[in-house]
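Q: What does the assembled structure look like for these inputs?
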Amino acid sequence: MARIGVITFPGSLDDRDAARAVRLVGAEPVRLWHADDSLAEVDAVILPGGFSYGDYLRAGAISRFAPIMGAVVAAANGSLPVLGICNGFQILCETHLLAGAMIKNERLAFVCKDQTLRVENNTTAWSNEYAAGEEIVVPLKNQDGQFIADEATLDELEGEARVVFRYVGNPNGSRRDIAGITNARGNVVGLMPHPEHAVEAGFGPEGAGTDGLRFFTSALSSLLAST
Amino acid sequence: MARVVVEIMPKPEILDPQGKAVAGALPRLGFTGFASVRQGKRFELEVDGEATEEVLAAARKAAEEVLSNPVIEDVVSVHVAKED
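A:
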């Protein structure tokens, strides 16, 4: 059985939901602690949402220096699938595993809604079970969710097909409607919306409400493909 | 005891949502005549003893690597605070 780690930082909120999503697709969630210095040989790792270290300084800025991040960076530079959700995405940007940064939402609004996303790249470790161009709905909830980068970086992301998810109806001013991106290798993915909150009928967005499930089955598929 | 002051501002080309909100509120409170507002951060780093060149160098390094994110912010000043 695949073992997928979920890191808990002080101030993480969605670590249990991420672990639950992992369990629902038939993998074993492995709870990891920010002060650990190893990833306990997991097959993939998730940095969950929340407000790690109170988001003091900048969202994700202090978590970057957590003891476990050394192991995350090393593994990410190998080929371990790494997913950063919301605060996890902010941490991956601060760590420079992903490009760009997040600033406060346009009009300073805390946005909490079911958000439609378009799958732009279905070849990453976390999106390969979606169809290219498919539209999915998952919850979005944040204050610092406006993705920005300079024009050269944005052009590079577009040119290399590293925009993985785009907002359909931009909720926060993110440049070029970008909701999620990947690294050059396609094993590290970060996004602001929360797929782990859309994994069980009746508890996610209206309708099926389970559009987030395939993030996690995608990771399992990519693990199978690499063995 | 000396204090090193680090000042950080959002990059000029980056829209500053906080500054924009403050700029919108000022005229409503009667403060007209300010064309725009940008909001940044000021850190005060206290050191035991004097703020030597070595201390300042360390503060500059911390400002570049931790206190600011170069994607969105510029370090505009690292200086020793004047004695009160």
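The two ends of chain A are 13 Å apart (CA to CA).
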